[in-house]
Amino acid sequence: PDNDLARMAALVEELNRHIYNYHVLDAPTIPDAEYDRMFRELQELESMHPTRVSPDTPTSRVGAAPIPEFKQVTHAVPMLSLNNGFQIEDVDNFDRRVREGLDLHQNAREVAYAAELKFDGLAMSLRYENGVFVQAATRGDGYTGEDVTANIRTVRVIPLRLHGPDIPDVLEVRGEVLMFKDDFAKLNARQREAGQKEFANPRNAAAGSLRQLDARITAQRKLRFFAYGIGLLEGAEMPESHSGVLDWFDRLGLPVSKERAVVTGRDGLLGYYKDIGARRDSLPYEIDGVVYKVDRLADQRQLGFVSRAPRFALAHKFPAEEALTV
Ligand SMILES: NC(=O)n1nc(-c2ccco2)nc1N
Fold first, then answer.
1. Mean pLDDT across 292-298
2. What is this structure's pTM?
3. 10 Å Cβ neighbour count for 176?
4. Any residues with Cβ below 6 Å from ligand 1, and which?
5. In 156-201, which residue ranges form alpha helices assigned H by DSSP?
């Protein structure tokens, strides 16, 4: 009856709000027992009205039954890789090529760059239609990836519905799925106890947890996600800058790292690199460098891509940590 449907909608909205507060804001707003009772009530109502289950129901977080194989997905906007830089000279060359590409003669205005962490996880593309999560695809070769929608549904920090008011018709979010260092250590401890193989590093653990045909296994792994780029956008105005895109993602309820900044010129880039380098070991997740992106999107379009990597971005890597002597 109708009051069941109204009750289901109310439970979905309230449970999703608690998930967001607990997992994204790290600020639980309800005792676990109360949450579990509401969750079970919703599961019962959904089993009575199977055709009326909401696409953003929190009950889908526990993982669907196994699938035989992963479907292929062709990315509407290719997910391309980054050029790497390792020393100061590479950063100087990058900044100089950008200024040349923007027809800025030698000592004209400095370029504004969005600087951000380079998360060491696996790249992911999330598709939202009218604000509802509908598909997730791995990067693959940049043009075609694997459909891991059922697995991504279990990642608590990824919203199943975007927060209003400026919801686009179609939005593809690019970002990194990763596992935090402490969750990685706990997973390996569980693997050891269960006599199963341990993962070599958090990146492998995240990749192994995602490429599970049984999403119920993925649901038991604490995976995280940080958005860092935009793919397809339909039915909304594209912000002027990359930093504006990330601010918008934050308002939409997508996890965006706070460790980002807009800096100017090569000095700004190197200052950011130095600051993050000093704090790298104290971050709760692994990074393998930082990423610089020309902030104005019109400038990015003007610079375009050389072969498959953008001329407007550079990954500045940290020296690989000496192999840990075990
Ligand atoms: N891995 C990572 O953290 N990435 N990767 C990009 C990227 C890849 C292609 C364009 O942008 N940006 C960041 N922060």
1. 97
2. 0.90
3. 24
4. 80, 82, 116-119, 176, 228-229, 291, 313
5. 181-193
